[in-house]
Amino acid sequence: MPAIKLTNLTKTYANTSKPAVNHLNLEVNDGEFLCLLGPSGCGKTTILRMIAGIETISAGEITIDNTPVDSVEKGCFVPPEQRHIGLVFQSYALWPHMTVLENVSFGLKIKKVPMAEQQRRTQDVMEKLHIAQLASRYPAQLSGGQQQRVALARMLVLNPKVLLLDEPLSNLDAALRLEMRSELRRIHKAFGTTIIFVSHDQWEAMTLASTIAVMSDGQLQQVGPPNEIYTKPVNRFVAEFIGNPKLNLMPLHNIQSPLSAHLHQRFGQLQNFDCCAIRPEEIILSTTPQADALPMQISSIIPTGGSWIIELKNGEDQLHYSTQRHPQWQTQEQVFCQLPELALHFFTPTGSRQSLTKGQC
Ligand SMILES: Nc1ncnc2c1ncn2[C@@H]1O[C@H](COP(=O)(O)OP(=O)(O)OP(=O)(O)O)[C@@H](O)[C@H]1O
Questions:
Q1: What residue stretches are annotated with the ABC transporter domain (predicted)?
Q2: How many structural domains are present in the chain?
Q3: Is 216 a pocket residue for ligand 1 (Cβ < 6 Å)?
Q4: Which of 59, 97, 223, 352 has its CA 20 to 30 A from that of 312?
């Protein structure tokens, strides 16, 4: 049974004509850590706000544990406080005049939970988040990462069925972000909470989530485990959005292009396809000619700290190759470039990825 089910979910804000979220269907299973990933303005926050109940829906339905909480057809709307959902925003304002302990226990106090239980639950969650030793401090006396953990504790103490996190790490510096990522993974393991996490940082999504839902322009593009999204993108948008350095795109119908000629020579008629792509780490480079290898010249070698990006040129064609091994080549040197068939992605003019012979991958 999915913890959350979104069916044909649509949101069109007042005074706008284009839906911010458009006929979205998504199931989030109990205990899943799902990341909504997509460029700015694609509708990620709007989805979280609708699940939390702080934004109404325009069409479709949201169910939590099989119970509709917002449905246009059924005319029902469950208010946010009855949805048992915790929402942590990018700016996680803590109560500045309350200590950490008071901040964390505040929600239980409001709910009139008996004092002994309040104390037990507050202590338990503070220990799990490693902030028990900070109990008597005020927010101004905490680091960004510690404040972040207090904000999470404040939500987790209420035992939410679902935790919604809207870019909660975006205010942190790189080192803290890394620390908080492992913290979030640990929290997810310790509490088993269903988490929906919004990010536009693909690296964050790939390293944290058990499932990624890629969005573009209010529409869901693909849902799956991170590795599947990376290796089997359903379309060109997903393929290009995921991956750093970016996917190499090779035009197939440019008579000036040696790459295009090379691919036609190997694969014959490619009139159904618009372009072909390969990830930078999938290219095989060698200094000696190989079967099915294309000569290219190294135009630059860029160290990126622990890995290298090598720019390759042949006429107007350009490819990026990436490696974690110290490159043995020099700039201007000629190398031979193999593009393994299994690593190639072929895209139709509408952008969907298809195999050469068997239709949709
Ligand atoms: N209250 C509102 N009224 C009208 N339009 C809105 C409102 N809130 C958001 N939008 C529009 O809806 C679209 C989706 O916005 P949303 O904030 O959900 O995107 P997002 O993917 O979370 O973006 P970001 O990554 O920048 O936070 C955008 O075009 C935005 O301008």
A1: 4-242
A2: 2
A3: no
A4: 352
Claim: this prediction has a pTM higher than 0.80: yes
Judgement on whether residues 91 and 190 belong to the same structural domain of the protein: yes
Task: Check whether residue 165 and residue 291 sit in a common domain.
Answer: no
Q: What is the pLDDT of residues 279-322, one digit of tens each?
A: 999 999 999 988 889 999 999 999 998 899 999 999 889 999 99
Instruction: Please provide the DSSP assignment of 228-291 as one string.
Output: HHHHS-SBHHHHHHS-SSPPEEEESS-TT-HHHHHHHHHH---TT-SEEEE-GGG-EEESS--T
> What digits encode the pLDDT tens for the residues 67-120?
999 999 999 999 998 888 888 876 667 999 999 999 999 999 998 999 999 999
Distance from Cα 68 to the centre of ligand 1, integer Å? 24
Q: What CATH number did the domain enclosing 252 receive?
A: 2.40.50.140
Q: Is 299 within the bounds of a domain?
A: yes
Ligand 1 atom nearest to CA at 11: 12
Q: Among 111, 104, 57, which residue's Cα sits nearest to residue 84?
A: 111
Domain span at residue 292 reads: 248-354
Q: How far is the CA of 20 from the centre of ligand 1 (A)?
A: 7
Q: Domain of 169: which CATH number?
A: 3.40.50.300
Residue bearing the CA closest to ligand 1, atom 17:
45
Query: What is the phi/psi pair of residue 110, to 5°?
Result: -60, -35
361 inside domain: no
41 lines ligand 1 (CB under 6 A): yes
| Alpha carbon of 242 to ligand 1 centroid (Å) | 21
